[in-house]
Amino acid sequence: MKHLVSLDDWDLGNYKDFFNLVTDFKFKKIYCPNKNLILCNLFYEPSTRTSSSFASAMWRLGGQVISINDVNYSSISKGENLEDTIITIGNYCDIIALRSKNAGDAQKASQVSSVPIINAGDGNGEHPTQTLLDLYTIWEKFGRIKDLTITFVGDIENGRTVHGLDKALDSCTKHYADTFDKSIWPASDIYYLTRVQKERGSEGSYSMRKEHIKHIPDNAIVMHPFPRNEEIPKWFDDDPRVKYFEQMKNGLFVRMALLHEYI
Ligand code: NCD
Question: Which domains are present in the chain?
């Protein structure tokens, strides 16, 4: 059975076919006939974009969604362990999108699951569907996902979106600005900003300033998985280098393509 626990499970050699499918969903507005399939969104951590775009993707494909996003109303609040929850839910759906608090949970779930597990973020581990939508956004702009320069700014240690993208862009030049007082970022094609993951023990804050902007090339893009805190002020939102709104939009089409491929 195919699971998507880590991007290591994905053959990036075939990324062009996958991205072409994403583009079809995005621009040709292809919707599948009702496939009568059910996605379970099992979210042990908060989410806006990932859970709602997964749900929207499944509905748009003609399937249906069970959402367990407030675990207080499930047996998890009675102390049920992850494996028993996964075994149970596997009886009622065809695929599970799992967001959990600990790195390694998605792997653990995949070992007992009777249906595909899609890792929707496991603690400070990985977030492979976010990585795919980040890669798609980069590919859309530059026509490639290699031979680029990327600067990661923010929480390098605990940001799971950084971990996945960093690994996937292995043939790119990478800079890391994890000390938030650096006033100038190196010239790059992509600036990937992230929030400080306070819930995982990270501390501090940073904010993009005018002196940073001056050093961002005209053809570069600024990405952020969102939610943002103070790292990107709203005054930057109209800048032509902003890609974070398109990036979140792409989340829907990437997840449609993914669900289409997986079940
Ligand atoms: C990210 C996450 O949950 O890892 N958000 C997302 O899925 N778009 C980033 C974050 O929470 O900082």
Answer: 7-127+251-262 (3.40.50.1370), 129-248 (3.40.50.1370)
